[in-house]
Amino acid sequence: MKWFWYASPETFYPLAGTMARASAVAAAALALAGLYVGFFVAPTDAQQGEVYRIIFIHVPAAWMSMFLYLVMAFWAALGLALNTKLSAMMARALAPTGALFTFIALWTGSLWGRPTWGTYWVWDARLTSELILLFLYFGFMALQASIEDQRRADRAGAVLAIVGAVNVPIIYYSVQWWNTLHQGASVSLTKSPSMAAAMFTGMILMALAFWLYSIAVSLTRVRCMIREEK
Amino acid sequence: MLEIARALVCRDLRLALRRRADVATALLFFVIVASLFPLGVGAEPNLLRAVAPGVIWVAALLASMLSLARLFADDHADGTLEQMLLGAAPLGVVAAAKAAAHWLVCGLPLVLLAPLLALQYDLPGALYGTLVLSLLLGTPVLSLVGAIGAALTLGLRGGGVLLSLLVLPLYVPVLVLGAGAVEMASAGLGGQGQLLLLGAMLVLAAAAAPWAIAAALRISSE
Question: Are B220 and A152 a contacting pair at CB < 8 A?
Fold first, then answer.
């Protein structure tokens, strides 16, 4: 039953502080390394020139936006199943960060689209599904905000997050069949990456930095929530 | 269990019959929204023919969503919902029956009205079948998924607007596939693929949504 030792907000509070600080430091270091590799080491792209370098923000942000939704749904489901307050707090703390990364992915995507596709916005499959993901995050946060009873808010949010998580792949594929213009994924699990090793390293470093940043801010947010409840 | 479901559906249909104005409002909304588009985008027949499936589907989506806010509100207000929660019938069955009644009252009329709107848009006659079939498969999904949102926002301030924020993103696949089926058919490719996927989504929603609705109802009324 060691698992539940940290399920209590009181015991988790100091641990969250240590983890948040360590993650923040690591995130800063990795982001510096990633940006250095991205700007100085990675070669210029043969077709897109220097413009492509926004990939080091764009792709990790897009990865995190989808990943964080699943993590959020996981914590929400755990909170619903085990009735642990801390899990619900984690879900609540992750939502704004996920929405932020979704917004960053959309924003950098449109900045990247302008020079390469010649337009800020196209109704392309991945852009559209990212936009809908942003709406899903907003829906989760709006539902949480409009219910005053925190317990009900957490449980209602959990149901919505689970329904959303089931829907995310359906939305993704339905939109993909609808319309696609986006370049194929640069990195996939089944193929070796179709890009230079330095570019790949930069992207992975930035993704790790974003991931650790998410841990740091969401744990800090959880600490604030624990304080508020006291 | 089927007895209970039938009794609930009959009760909701009877209630809807007593308040015909509510049903009529949603239907009128559907017709008006669809009629506004030609005024906005211009009455060029080719353009209208091109946008017809999308416009009819979006109008159906909005009309079906408008009536969702009332799905559980009356039962919640007069205490019937509490009795349903306490009753012996599985709540999932109750939820499925409520969603089915909502579809019969608000979804089926949309399906039946759609050919009339398609006429306004001069949609080729060969596409009517696909349009009606896609709506027939898609609108029950809207009722089932929408009922989750309706149950979650039960009794909240500004529930109606919140409901649309929760539910509309979840409606996207239905819209894409539904309007896509008609567009594929009009391109001469046949819309069977999209229709089959819509059918799959209906099966998935019918199997999973009632339990999500039940969980949401328990959360909202505890």
Answer: yes
